[in-house]
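pasting for the record
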Amino acid sequence: MPEIVVAALYRFVPVADPEAVRAALEAVLAAHGVRGTLLVAGEGLNGTIAGSAAGIDAALAAIRAVPGCEDLAPKFSHAATMPFHRLKVRLKREIVTMGVPGTDPKRIVGTYVAPADWNALIADPQTVVIDTRNAYEVKVGTFAGAVDPGTDSFRDFPDWFRANRDALLAGKSKVAMFCTGGIRCEKSTAFLKSEGVEEVYHLDGGILKYLEAVPAEASAWQGECFVFDERVAVGHGLTPGSHGLCRGCRRPVNDVDRASPLYREGVECPACAGTHDAATLAGKAERHRQVALAAARGERHVGARMEREGDNSPP
């Protein structure tokens, strides 16, 4: 069975008619069997899609036909099986939601740092390193010495920075930030620049590009990188990681979580145990039973009660 190609992409570019672009891209992606999520807004496009090599080629040709996206350079990886259940091409107000009006990466943004130069920057004593992702992502893996904001949503990042600015910047002259694929850093660096922080840097291509380009023996990365699809996490070389996905809260689970008495495969994990009512738990348990039966028959079960998938973009 041919490997599935996974393409993570984004581009901040003015889109004059987002709905027309959304409809046109949805038609092309659906016609070529591509799945995943693609978000379209007046500020640009963002998403992760997967399909055959020919399908992804056709999808990217359509995306690059959007004015301003001609030189789009996705980050590619591969999966043994399709990591998405379906295709969703959605219209959004922002392609990654920070909620700060006027934050425009097309106008002002931090300095891009290539993966090969990242280790030297974050090792500089004058640099404070900030992980802009959410707490459940940081738990899976992060760079050594990075500050974890402990946020549940990217919307929380501006308030967190304003509340902790003085302590973060004390004795530091540089701020280096990173995220999964780079898009959150486009907005977070633009935000910090607008707040008057002068030396702001971010990892070009995000963690995914770093894990692809930097060999494990030279890496400052610790753990795995959470991704917003059924692979759950990837490691160096973008190989599949060891984490699973809780079907109760769609958060990553590791071996420690699985060993907990609060973990029920396909139902709940220590992070969400006790938050669902009996009917919800029974429904998830039944779905897990049906998934197991389908797997025993060599089939893939996607039922009508399939849990809601995320947007493949950070909340």
